[in-house]
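New to this. Help decode both lines:
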Amino acid sequence: MPKHAVPKIAFLIAFNLLIAITLAWFHKPIVLAAGQLVAIPAYAGSVFTSFFGSPDDYGYIDSTGHFVNGLKFQEKRRFVLDSRFSHGMACTSYYNKPSYLTSLGAFVPVPFAKIGRFGENSLAPVFDLDHSAWGFINTSQKLVIPCRYSEVNQFSSGLAAVRELDSKQDGLYGYIDTTGSWKIAPKFEQAGCFSEALAPVKLGVLWGFIRPDGEFKIPPAFHFASEFHNERAVVSKAKLGNVTDNYSCIDSNGRPVFEFTINKSAVPKPFSAYGAIPNSFDPDYKELIANTFDYSEGLLVRQRGNKYGYCDQDGKFVISSTFDFAFPFSNGRAVVYRKNDGGGKYAIIDKNGNLLSDFKFDYATSYSENFACVYIKGRGYLYLDLAGKEAFPDTFELAYPFYEGKALVKKMTAQGLGF
């Protein structure tokens, strides 16, 4: 992974006493670097896996729980597949030749060594092996931004943070527009995505926030800075790395709103149905952790004592701190965690803090397109609806969240779970 990282990477580095062990394999947002072995889209949750053996066991289901015609794999192939559709396409590899799988089941080959997911402005990062550099294509697979960058980030507000290959700026980041023209000259050691018209950037050793014109609105003063969500960002003026670190929540003018602490030892260990090693075909735990201390739907996960709950934009608790850990809201629902003698169980709550399910799941993802994916030992993966009830009668050996109306699954074999 690249040494030059954006703020979420800095935050996960701050989690080094636990996350270095459990989440060192994840960064968010992800900067695509020339030296990476596998190209993945420059934002959270992308994941690739290899399919071996019986590909007919794999496919995409729709929101009724039925397999989608054309998206149930029946030929013996070797796939490296991004579980999520974006702009009607998912990243695949057919015998090491990158291609996009369309929502109709067609494979569209591309003449690049590595590919990423389509994002804002319908652009996807691609890696040219001859130039050892990244560029961007559109959904017609036309190269619209030449491959000349050693590292690229996703587009946000029409701008992408990039590092030009062999630049005279000594590896500094700047921002380009969708034509590849520089809009903010390279001058930052690290650079994040724009959110709510502000982007966190690192100048020297400190983080601040710039406007789309490249001028600082909040001067560099922080050793950590997240992106803005719901007019709030999490920052720290102290160097991080302790079990418990101190943070501040600031408004878009840089004024502190309230202070809080985060105890990294409370973060649950990554889940894997296959054993102690985290399942690399499961982006959702990684995304949950990376987004945990951002505002989501107006609420922020906040610790009080040794428990976690949710506060509003002023820092006032609106859902009591009664959980051993808590995760961000989506679709008006949130995943919460409670320890027990066996390690811990997950449940779902609504915005009033009411339990929509018991603490009975060995793993649970955030809601995506009105469904949450959960795992129960001995049964496998299944989907919950917004009421917290089982959405479909089928369970799956592997299952992943819904995106653009489809979810990737591996059906349960006749012998049941394969592990």
